[in-house]
Amino acid sequence: METRIRKVNYKNIDLKIIQEAGRILKSGGLVAFPTETVYGLGGDALNPASAEKIYAAKGRPSDNPLIVHIADKADVYRIAEQVPEQAERLMEAFWPGPLTLIFPKKPLVPDKTTGGLPTVAVRMPSDKIAAAFIRAAGGFVAAPSANASGRPSTTTAAHVAEDLSGRIEMILDGGQAVIGLESTIVDVSEERPVILRPGVITKAMMEAVIGPMETDQVLIAPDSDVKPKAPGMKYRHYAPKAELMIVEGETKDVIATMNRLTAEAELQGKRVGIIATDETARCYERGLVKSLGARNCEGEISMHLFEVLRSFDETDVDCIYSESFGGAVIGQAIMNRLLKAAGHRVIKV
Length: 349
Ligand code: AMP
Ligand code: MG
Prior knowledge:
Blueprint: E1 4-7, H1 15-26, E2 31-33, E3 40-44, H2 48-58, E4 67-69, H3 76-79, H4 85-94, E5 99-104, E6 119-123, H5 128-136, E7 141-142, H6 157-164, E8 170-173, E9 184-187, E10 194-197, H7 203-210, E11 214-215, H8 217-220, E12 243-248, H9 251-267, E13 272-276, E14 288-291, H10 298-311, E15 319-322, H11 331-341, E16 346-348
Parallel strand pairs: 1-8, 2-8, 4-6, 5-9, 10-11, 12-15, 12-16, 13-14, 13-15
Antiparallel strand pairs: 2-3, 3-7, 4-7, 5-6, 9-10
Helix pairs in contact: 1-5, 10-11
This protein binds adenosine monophosphate and magnesium ion.
């Protein structure tokens, strides 16, 4: 199959292209589309055959449920059996935006879309191209991140093409995704809301609206044997091909350690990649150095994380050392992705 790539301009959204994309979904095909978080791989959420196609295109295990994207708040009541009051307050505060909520599902949502779970994950993106596309596609678009399973999520149309070209009908190209990390996921299907995946909507931001929340045990103790509540969190994720290791500590110690480890690896004939910041990039004497942006600008770091992880796959590096990024607001979300990419390999100095 030939994958059509269509550029769409936010200032003047071409409705002919959006209609074409919508028709593809209604006839059971797949379209990747931009959102404010990362690119999504969209299929008709109410068509079980579309869910199967999504799993096949990504090479994703089919017990890993898909998030259903909507464009109008009222549509949540058509697919969720119950919408608790706390969820309504979160929706009021953060929708449209990078927050996914999990509800008991109505029978209208096929089991294939939810990986057999009795619950459904719902998000209303703020991205204007995404909203127009969702409406044109019938209102309910199942979309995981538009990457091959296990690889870093995609933040540009070119990344999507790299992973999915020839496997899907169309890519809507809206340029670079501005947030760069996937949505925060909160389970509101039980008594007390539980955070299943951290994102740019933080626990503190949500607690200011609804009071105390819990965090899934698996996020707190990643090595525990507890089963994650978001099935996707158990899979290896985001990993570049080279072995990634995080170095954590005072900046000057981190730089010294990364320089030493790089020299040692090079002596063994290895090529080394380094993930740094604008402030530290020039302190690394050897290796292929890439900066995520200014350390005090968490938005820059999150926006470039997947792009930089991905870019190392086009090089011949054998191992990558990365600085750590526990910033004040979204540090938890950034480190959650980086730790997974590194298979939780951390050197503390
Ligand atoms: P992605 O589509 O790549 O952003 O991943 C979606 C994440 O949402 C995965 O980690 C899924 O396991 C999680 N998810 C989707 N639906 C549900 C659900 N009904 N219950 C729990 N987690 C879910
Ligand atoms: Mg994903």
